[in-house]
Amino acid sequence: MKAGRFMLAAAALAALTACGPIEPWVKSYERENLADPIMAFDRNPVSTAYMDHVFEAREAARGATGGAGGGCGCN
Known about the structure:
It is built from 3 helices and no strands. By secondary structure, it is mostly helical. It has a domain at 26-63. The longest helix has 16 residues, at 2-17.
């Protein structure tokens, strides 16, 4: 009986925490700083982007590395 109440309380708490603020934590003017290639986990992101481009051109495997783009055609 107590386990059922605990599970119900935990589910209610989880449902209430999902109803947070709708506004994003990162403002639109801050996103340009986060999208900078220097913020990548790679040690040399510019070189890696170039080598990915070369690989795509040589292997005809365009987009196989998970490139950017949202389906709007504005890559």
